[in-house]
Amino acid sequence: MNFKLKAHNALLYQEQQVYSDFLDSFDAHYTDFKSHNIIVHIASNQAPDMIFIAALLKRSHVHLAKKKSFVVVASEWSINDFPNELVVVPTTLEAEDLIEMDEMQRDLGF
Predict the structure, then answer these.
(1) β-bridge mates for residue 89, sequence order
(2) Domain count, the chain
(3) Distance CA 97, CA 76 (A)
(4) Which domain holds residue 102?
(5) In terms of C-beta density within 10 A (0-12 exposed, 13-18 middle, 19 or more buried), how is residue 48 classed?
(6) How many distinct helices (H) and strands (E) make up the chain?
(7) Is the model's pTM score more than 0.90?
(8) Tens digit of pLDDT for each residue in 7-28?
């Protein structure tokens, strides 16, 4: 996993062929970006995997409890591959827009 901190967001790139490698790396580096909103980029050449999606959802719940956003960018996957509780968009720009709206709502107390 590669990650880049950008303003209030952490951009995480899932590039490993093995999902467990990404999840292990995510957990190992979580302290580096836990105070940021998280955008997880799923590699376009990866096939949907329900165990991986469930693991992302679990991490999303933990991160959302800290009043931070968690968005998955999956341009090649169908939105139907994900549970409704997980925020999924096709592009980084949409992820950043959603996070900006989330931050405004948190600032207003919603």
Answers:
(1) 73
(2) 1
(3) 20
(4) 2-108
(5) middle
(6) 3, 5
(7) yes
(8) 899 999 987 778 899 999 999 9
